[in-house]
Each structure stands twice: as C-alpha cells, then as structure tokens.
Design brief:
The structure holds three protein chains of three kinds. By secondary structure, chain A is of the alpha+beta class. In chain A, the strands form seven sheets. In chain A, strands 1, 2, 3, 4, 11 and 12 form a six-stranded mixed β-sheet that branches. In chain A, strands 18-13-14-15-19-22 form a six-stranded mixed β-sheet, sandwiched between helices. A five-stranded antiparallel β-sheet of chain A has the order 28-27-26-23-29, with no helix packed on it. Chain C has two domains: 110 residues, Serine Threonine Protein Phosphatase 5, Tetratricopeptide repeat, CATH 1.25.40; 68 residues. A two-stranded antiparallel sheet of chain C has the order 1-2. In chain C, α1 packs antiparallel against α2, α4 packs antiparallel against α5 and α5 packs antiparallel against α6. Chains in contact: A-B, A-C, B-C. Chains B and C meet through β7, β9, β10, β11 and β12 of B and α4, α6 and α9 of C.
C-alpha cells in the first residue's frame, strides 16, 4: 500500500508531510524549502510555473500569475469575496457557465479547482521525489470556515491532481492533532491560525484522544500578506519623501520591495531593527538611486496594530459561539508563519491571559496533523477520533421567503436530519427544493448550494401531501439533499457540487421566488 | 385543449409549449414554466418568441415558420442559460386546417447525445467549406482576385461556425468549460490578438518537431509585453512556419536559427520579426509558393539580408495599430 | 543595456579607440569613437580624436555608411560596438529594413554567443562581491533587479523567465556583470 501524505493547501504557502516510523516528517522541496508558495503562473512564452519560480515573477508578470485561488474556490462569481478579489488581483476573474469564478491567465480560462490542482500536483511531486515512490492518496486541510461548495472544490482539485482525497480536515483541527500526539488528559484549546492570506480561530475540546470542535470563525481576507502590504506602503512613502521618486508604478521595484518587506517582517521577529537595502532601485538626475531605510520593530507594530486587534474581535465571536469565557481555555496554540511576530504572540497572550504554546512549528503543524490523520485512516487507528462541525446552518427556502434550518451550525458531522414539508397550493404537482446555507432567516440572504424539483405529486389539497426532505453531511462536510413524496415513494436528490450550483442532473436557475413551487412547513 | 389533455401535459417532465397560428403562446406546461421562467404569468397571450431569449429566440422563430410553411416537423437546438435542449416544432392540423404549432423540448444530457447533436451542427459548415475550397482550386488564374476574396470570406465564416462547434465538443470531452461563451468582466477577449513572444515560441516549438529540424533547437528572443497584433494569429503563425520549414531541410548545413521580435517607430509603428540563420554562407532557399502574396495580405513587408560570415536574416515588418 | 554607467562606458571606449588607433586599426577605432558620440554628441575627446583621424564626426545622413562601419566592426570581432552603431543607424533611419535586418542578425549572433558562455542557459549565477560593496559600482535599475534574483541556484534560463525582461538584455547584462567581476557563473 502506498503512503498517505498530508497536505496543508494554504492560501499563500503549502506544505506536505508524511509519517515515517510513526514520526512526522515535513518534506522539503528540491530547493530545500519546507513550504511552497501557492502560486501558479504562465509566462509570455507559455511556460507554466508553480511555487517559488511563480512567486519571483509575480509582480513583473502580474496579469498571468495566480495567487490566493483558495479565496475563489467554490464561490459564485457574484459573491462579495470574488468581486473583492477581482478588484485586488491583476489577473482576470471571469464568470463561468455555472456562475462560478474562473481565472484567465496565459489566454486560457481555468476553473479554481484546476488552479489548486497545479499546486497539489507540485506537492505530490515533491513527496514522490522524497519518498522515491508514487503517491496517490492524501489528506488535505481546509479552513474551518469553508462551506460545502468550497470543500467539494478542494476535493475536486485533489482528484484533478491525481490524488484520492481520503479526508478533508479543518486546519485548526489538524494542528490540534499534531499538538495532541503525545498528550493526554482533558483540555480546551484555542487554535489561532494566522497564515499568509487567511485567519481562522477555533475552539476545541480534547479528551483522552478525542478531539471535538466546539466552534470556529475566521476571515478569508486577512493574513500575513496584509502585513507585507503595510510595509511596502511605508517604504514607498519613505522613498518618496527622501528622494522625490515614485516607485509605485515600477513593477521591478515593487517586486524587490515586496520581497524585502517580507524578509524584513520575518527578521524583525528576532531583532529590534533591520536595514532594508535595495541598490540601484531607480535612476535619478545624478545617476543610480539606492533605497536604504531602517525599519524598527516598533514602527512595524505601529503599522499593523489594527490588523492584529481585528483578529481578536473574531476570536471574541468564536468564544461566544462556543459559549465559553476566555478564562476556560486551557491552552492556546499558534498556527501560521505570521504568528511568529512578537506583537501577535503578545496580543494573544494578553487576551487569553496565558502564553501561547510554542512547542510546534507554526508553518508546518497543519501538514503534520494532516499526515497524522492520513495514517489514522489507513491504519484505522481508533485511538484518535476526530469530530468536526459544520460551520454554517443548512436548510431550505420555504413559502414567504423564509429559511427553515434543518441542521444548525456547529453541529458535529457526519449528521443526517429530516423534516416533513408540504405543498402551498391545491393540486400542486411539483415542489422545488432550494438548499441554502447560512444564518439569516430570510432565504435569499443565504447562499444557494443547489436546487432540484420533485414532480409527480398526486393532486391534493394544499397542506395534505407529505414530502420528507433529508440532509446528509458526511465527514468531509459534503452535503447531499433529498426529497421524498411519502404517498408515491418518488424521490429526487442531489449532491451539491463544487460550484455551488446545481449538479448536472438538476435544473440550473437563478434564485427567484417561485410561488408556484414553494413548500411550507408541515404542521 | 380539453381538461384531460391539459392534465396529461402537466405531468410531463418534458417542457411543452403550444402556439396559435398567430404565433402567440396558448399553453405552456409546468415543466416549461419551470425551465423558462419568463413564461410564468404570460401564457396565454405572449408571442412564442418572447418566451425565449438571444439565439434561442431566432431558432424558435425559424423552426415555427418552416414547420407551418412546410407542414412538417422541424428539429432544432437551443440554449437556456447553461442548459441545452433538442427541440421539435410540429404543426397542429385539424380538419385540414393549421390550428397551431407545438414545441416539445428535451433537455440534453452531457455526453453522447450532446456530442451527436453538435456533430450534426458541424456537418453543414464543413460541407460548405469543402465546396468553397473546391471552387478555389478550380478557379482560372486570371479571375482570381475579387472572386477569391469573396470565396475566402465565405470559407472563413463557415470555419468560424465549425470552430465554435468543435470548441464546445472539446469542452465537453475534457470537462472544461473554457470554450463556452463566457461573460467577461474586464476588457475584450484576447482570442483575436497575437502576442508576439507567445507566437514565436509556438512557431519554434512546432518547427522543432518537424523532421527537417533534425534535433536542432530554435531560439526565441522576444521581450514579453510587446505590442499585440490584431487579427487571426493562425495566418501569421502559418506563414512563419512555412518560412522556417523551407530552411529546415535535412540537406541544409546545421545552423543555429534564432527568431527575434521587437517593436520600432518609423513611418508607422511596426513589429519586426526576423528569422536569423547564423553562419549561413549560401543564398537563401527560394521563397515558398505564394509567400509574397500572403505577406501582402497581412499588410506586411518582407526583406532578406545576408552578410557573410554573420549569416542571413529574413525580416518581416508588420504594421501595428495606432 | 550596459552593466557600466554611461560615463564609465565612454571612458572605456575612448581608451580602446586610442589603443586601436595606435595599432593602425583605424576603422575599429573610429567605430569606438562614433559610439561615444551616440552616447554623448558633445563629447569633446571623441570629436578631437575623430578630427585627428581625419574622419568626420558624423557619418551624416549616410545610413549606409553607418551600416557599413557597423558590419566592419562586426567582421573584426567587435560585435558589441557593431550593435551600438547599428542601434544608432536604425534609430536614425527606422524604415531602412536592411539596417534593421542586420541589427537583428547581429543581435541574434551575440545572443547565441552569450548563451553558449552561460552553459546554454544552465549556468547558475551568483554575486561574487559582498552585497554592501555593490554600491561602489555604477549600474542601471535593471541590473539591480537582476542581481536581486541571483541566489546561486536559479539557472540563467529561469532568470530570463522570471525577470520578465528581454532575453537578450538579460544575457547581455549578465555577461557584462561577469566581465566586471560582480557576478560569477557556476556550472
């Protein structure tokens, strides 16, 4: 049997790990790096670049370099997140035929799972090179806040990359697994995950090898890249004032500034001040002009303090969802390279009133946890049981535009729930079931995951037919919905697909209230 | 329509719509209203065509007209959003008189059915293209100019329709939706503009695979971000490939070949593409047939230059817009 | 594009021209000084040297003469100087397609030469001076950018790809940087 690898498919960086003789090993790539930038590019001459090479030309070839595809996967084109990404990115984001988001680079439009698959394929290649054998199975991690469509898209990406995805695991859960490897007892953990592009906070309960996720929250547009951006803006402003030269429109200069900003940020975690030197950054009236600025930790912290405070607001929300005061958290673990920053560690420590645990490498811990989960699945080790939750409530649209929840958020998965609904008109022969995910009582304010029609209902007075609507969420968070006419036994079902629209068998429609086909709750 | 028939149609999963002789919809079953939402509340009364949109509207109108005129069923295809349908429009006759038309739709399932339908659509433009090309070959030399242009225009239109069908078929087979008409948010599509660096790399890659290349590699020296050329990239690519292939013969002395591109100002802004044969001592091989005409058709100029021991360069100057 | 500053290049070309003139290689010396005047039309030393050689400061409107001089320089193995002269000739007469074609041919030859010197694109350049010593050189922004990409692991072919610059410009720049001892090309 082949080895199962654990992949942390990050917004900004990815990491792959495997268990060797019961111990986790993070696999370095050929350049010796243990993380690989989650970037894909097509050069002008048609070459495809992934990882470090793609990152190095990200600004000079911005229009054809994709980053943070994770923010788009599984989302509708019209969603706020996609529209926001569209404004921020130099690469083109298009509307796909399923109203999903597609990415155009190198003259070709790619689906988001395809782009993620390029990264996963690279991680697979790194693993195969290291292990010296083919790799076909993986456990892949996703943010805890990912909804069904995003999870399905990630699974599809794995399939495209030639990997059988044995399980999708929430990132903070994977981190907790890595942390809990050699621990025993009963603890409540807060996992604070600040990566390159996303922020997640989860509250977990660990007890004698069982990990239960109590609550989770996050922000898919907040991460280390925001810190880098603040530094770049600071450098541009400083250079503008000292030399009177504007570098913002110079792609070569911006690439160097971005690289230097990221390096300075990392160095300032260990030092109080750094020199940023970029010789020959521009040409002035008297010849070459160099950028030479000192950046102190104090200045950096002033630049990013509001970002760090913003994460704590999200932490507050998560604790409320878990109905836990912060004082009941036993341990705080930090995940993501950005948590190396002293300001972040200090802010988290102050908030929880205890020092975060630093026994795990924040860049690698998620991949390690994924590798452990992979080994657990293969060896069917019951000693470490993982219970996860669905992050959003699930239900259907009912008469009058209401949202009837069938499964509340933070319900442990896998789960299956049913409810009986009925018709709203006499002789109504068909019902349309619109599967929604979200928290609003108003149906149209939630995300449409899919819809389907159950027809052939025997003519009857309104309110008489009994239609059983069932939802099933598997361990990966993938949703299936079905409707069954109790009188005729006729049944229709869907498994919600990656694009958040209908599957191939179902009718694809834009959301609109259809009085003719609405259902109402059966009293 | 009597109640029993209406009830029967209401249970059909297939969309059905019926029109009167004036082209107005008199009945649409629930399956039709479910898939064509704009029909809700408008039947009876609305013109049949207004229950569809875009290209579907034309297809329906054409089918209804032909069905009523010929008195025979007409098959056609239409799209509603991302769904494809095969349809049949059939005249309804009663007591020797035409009393209406019924359109029955069947949702196309991705796969064999759809591919077969696409293939049927592709057959006609392929036939047209074949006929045009045949006429081209048979043209006497002295009447070529104007007639040629007209025939080429017909051929290009047929080819465009053929490509559309082939692209859609490819999209289905590969599971990729790239070829579907995708609404774009920013700027125009790049399909009809040539990026010089990418073009030269494609030409070099194709030439390297020919037998005449005999393992030689072809270098490309072109900066990214050169101004793009309007028009069909295939014509220029084909021309450059012919030029290269004429030089890549097994008998030729092994040479290093470099393709270069750069933009220049001058009487007009231009892109200069050069095929450089380093160290070539002899005269250039003869031009491929009709090369000069093809160059002129592109609105370009061709110049050959040689200087021993440097080699030979064949330069193409292409006008840039603006 | 040059790895050295304009001032440095002028000084070098003037000196080389004098040496060549001293050896009786007048055409090549003239070619050097003409290049200097392309860089600085009022450069007095170059004007004086050309006058001493009995050659007009400017080839005038005779683009053909410029092209001939350039090709003569190329035949003598002075490809870089020839390219500079052709660059001037084509700038002055952009519609002269013979000049443009000869420019492309010469550039192609130089490209092939640079590429061969760099292991056909497989050499892995790295800095051969300390980073804080770089500022004593006089380099353009493109050189600064290219130097920031060097790590001793990335091959020349990859540098061309990620830099987004003209491939010829990258190789020429690397060749000059190597010549000046700023960069070394590891296999």
């Amino acid at each position: 049997m082949g080895r199962v690898i654990g992949i942390d498919l990050g917004t900004t960086n990815s990491c792959v790990a495997v268990l060797e003789n019961g111990q986790p090993s993070v696999i370095p790539n050929s350049g010796g790096y243990k993380t690989t930038p989650s970037m894909f590019a097509i050069t002008q001459d048609g070459k495809r670049l992934v990882g470090h090479l793609a990152k190095r030309q990200a600004i000079t070839n911005a229009r054809n370099t994709v980053f943070a595809a994770k923010r788009l996967i599984g989302r509708r084109f019209d969603s706020d997140e996609v529209q926001r990404s569209s404004e921020m990115c130099a690469y083109e984001i298009l509307r796909g035929p399923n109203d999903d988001a597609r990415i155009q680079v190198g003259g070709k439009a790619f689906t988001c799972p395809e782009v993620s698959a390029f990264i996963l394929r690279e991680m697979r290649r790194v693993a195969e090179e290291y292990l010296g054998e083919p790799v076909t199975e993986a456990v892949i991690t996703v943010p805890a806040y990912f909804n069904d469509a995003q999870r399905q898209g990630t699974k599809d990406a794995g399939k495209i990359a030639g990997l059988e995805v044995l399980r999708l695991v929430n990132e903070p859960t994977a981190a907790a697994m890595a942390y809990g490897m050699n621990r025993s007892g009963h603890e409540k953990l807060a996992v604070y995950d600040l990566g390159g592009g996303t922020f997640d906070i989860s509250v977990l309960e660990m007890s004698e090898g069982v990990i239960e996720v109590l609550a989770t929250a996050g922000n898919t547009f907040l991460g280390g890249e925001d810190f880098d951006r603040r530094i770049v803006e600071h450098l541009l402003e400083g250079f503008r004032r000292s030399e009177g030269i504007e570098l913002a429109g110079d792609p070569m200069a911006l690439q160097r500034l971005k690289d230097a900003a990221e390096k300075a940020k990392c160095d300032l975690s260990a030092r109080e001040r750094v020199e940023i030197n970029l010789p020959f950054i521009a040409t002035g009236a008297n010849g070459p002009v160099h950028l030479s600025l000192e950046l102190t930790r104090e200045v950096l912290e002033g630049l990013v303090d509001d970002i760090v405070r913003g994460t704590l607001k999200i932490v507050e929300q998560c604790l409320q969802d878990a109905s836990l005061p912060r004082t009941e958290i036993d341990q705080v673990i930090l995940v993501g390279g950005q948590t190396r920053m002293p300001l972040v560690q200090q802010a988290v420590a102050e908030y929880f009133g205890k020092r975060p645990h630093k026994g795990v490498n924040p860049d690698e811990v998620v991949a390690v946890g994924a590798a452990i989960q992979g080994e657990t699945l293969v060896s069917q080790d019951e000693n470490l049981l993982l219970l996860d939750v669905t992050p959003l409530s699930l239900g259907i649209a009912t008469f009058g535009g209401h949202f009837a929840k069938l499964i509340e958020r933070n319900t442990t998965v896998p789960v299956c729930k049913s409810h009986i609904f009925t018709t709203t008109r006499d002789s109504q022969s068909a019902v349309k079931i619109r599967v929604l995910q979200g928290e609003s009582d108003v149906a149209q304010e939630n995300d449409l995951l899919g819809e389907f029609v159950l027809s052939g209902i025997r003519p009857a007075r309104k309110g008489e037919p009994e239609i059983e609507v069932s939802f099933d969420i598997d361990a990966n968070g993938i949703v299936s919905a079905s409707a069954r006419d109790q009188a005729t036994g006729k049944e229709q079902s869907i498994t919600v697909n990656a694009t958040g629209t209908l599957s191939e068998e179902e009718i694809q429609k834009i959301i609109e209230e259809q009085e003719l086909y609405e259902v109402q709750l059966k009293e | 329509m009597i109640g029993a028939e209406r009830t029967l149609l209401s249970y059909l999963d297939a969309p059905v719509v019926i029109g009167d002789p004036d082209g107005r919809a008199v009945y649409a079953n629930p399956a039709f209203e479910l898939r064509f939402e704009r029909a809700v509340g408008r039947v009876p009364g609305a013109p049949l065509a207004e229950l569809f949109e875009g290209g579907a509207r034309e297809a329906v109108l054409r089918a209804v007209v032909v069905a009523c005129r010929e008195g025979e069923s007409v098959r056609f295809r239409l799209r509603e959003g991302a769904l494809g349908f095969s349809a049949v429009a059939s005249p309804i006759a009663a007591q020797g008189e035409q009393v209406g038309v019924v359109i029955l739709l069947k949702e196309e399932v991705e796969g064999v059915e759809r591919v077969l339908a696409l293939h049927r659509e592709m057959e006609q433009p392929m036939d047209e293209l074949g006929q045009v090309l045949q006429q081209l070959f048979e043209l006497p030399a002295d009447s070529r100019e104007a007639r040629l242009r007209s025939l080429l225009s017909d051929a290009q239109q047929a080819l465009g329709r053929l490509r559309k069908g082939a692209d859609e078929m490819h999209a289905m087979l590969t599971g990729s939706r790239d070829a579907d008409p995708i609404a774009r948010t920013k700027g125009a599509g790049s399909a009809l503009r040539t990026e010089p660096s990418a073009l030269l790399h494609r030409v070099a890659a194709r030439a390297e695979r020919t037998e005449g290349a005999a393992g030689r590699s072809i270098d490309v020296v072109a900066a990214p971000g050169l101004p793009t050329l309007p028009g069909d990239p295939n014509r220029l690519e084909a021309l450059l490939l012919r030029l290269l292939e004429a030089r890549l013969t097994p008998e030729a002395t092994p040479l290093r070949i470099v393709l270069t591109a750069r933009s220049v100002a001058g009487s007009w802004p231009a892109l200069l593409i050069s095929l450089c044969e380093l160290g070539a001592q002899s005269t250039a091989p003869p031009d491929p047939p009709h090369l000069r005409e093809e160059v002129a058709a592109l609105g370009a100029e061709l110049r050959a230059f040689s200087h021993a021991p440097l080699g030979r360069a064949t330069l193409l100057r292409l006008r840039l817009p603006g | 594009m040059a790895a050295e500053s304009p001032a440095g290049r002028v000084a070098r070309l003037l000196a080389e021209g004098l040496e060549l003139f001293g050896e009786g290689r007048v055409d090549q010396a003239v070619a050097r000084w003409r290049v200097v005047l392309e860089l600085d039309p009022a450069q007095q030393d170059a004007l004086d040297y050309l006058e001493s050689a009995g050659v007009p400061a400017d080839a005038g409107d005779d683009g053909r003469a410029r092209v001939r001089e350039a090709l003569a320089a190329a035949d003598a193995g002075e490809a870089e100087q020839a390219l500079a002269l052709l660059s001037a000739a084509t700038a002055q007469a952009p519609d002269d397609l013979d000049a443009q074609a000869s420019f492309d041919l010469l550039r192609a030859q130089l490209y092939a030469r640079y590429r061969a010197r760099m292991g056909d694109g497989n050499a892995r350049p790295r800095l051969s001076v300390e980073p804080d010593q770089l500022m004593r050189f006089d380099l353009p922004p493109e050189a600064g950018f290219l130097l920031s990409l060097l790590d001793g692991r990335t091959r020349v072919a990859e540098l061309v790809t990620v830099s987004g610059l003209d491939p010829f410009a990258v190789l020429q720049l690397l060749a000059r940087l190597e010549q000046d001892g700023i960069v070394e090309l590891a296999a």
